[in-house]
Amino acid sequence: MRSEYSSRSLFRFCLALTSLSLLILQPIAVFSSPDAPRSTLTADQRAVQVLSRLSFGARPGDLEAIKKLGARAYIDQQLSPDAIDDSELNKRLEKLPTLMLANPTLAEQYNPPKPKPTPSPVAASTETSTAASVTPTESPIPVASPTASPKPTPTPNPFPQQTPQPTPPSRPRTPPRTPPT
How far apart are alpha carbons 94 and 174 in whole angstroms? Predict the structure, then answer.
């Protein structure tokens, strides 16, 4: 029994060691061979692949630019944006003067003006009461008494009571028709 256990464990150990060596050595062997061709794409296919993977789609002239510069040079150019000439874009942006304004200036010029505060009802009632005391004639505006408290507005009930709906009268059932014999 003991020899059976040791032979199984030895077999499992050898199998695990072989699997581990294949998992480690096989990728190293594939990537280290300098003679293996990286890709078999033509120049046109390579240019289309670069455009489809590195941009939002081909524009007119992009395919010719990649063919002229080469894929590696085009990628390097795209990764260094300071080397790209932006003079045409700057000419277009000069037509938009708001791009050159500071944020506070933009807020002053384009935010809507703040509304003027409306007088509170308490302040208005004191003004009308003083005006009524100065003039002996009756004012057409009713004067609110300062001791009267405003009535609270009722809040709607979020769970209104539901009244049962009347059930429609049921129709009497008719017996199924039997075919004539």
Answer: 85
146-172 pLDDT per residue, tens: 555 566 666 666 666 666 666 666 666
What letters, b where the CB count within 10 A reaches 16 and e where it falls short, cover 45-84? eebbebbeeeeeeeeeebeeebeeeebeebeeeeeeeeee
Q: How many independent structural domains does the chain possess?
A: 1
Q: What is the pLDDT of residues 49-83, one digit of tens each?
A: 888 888 887 888 888 888 898 888 988 888 888 88
| Structural domain that includes position 43 | 8-32+39-93
**Closest residue by Cα to residue 148 from 121, 117, 119, 130:** 121
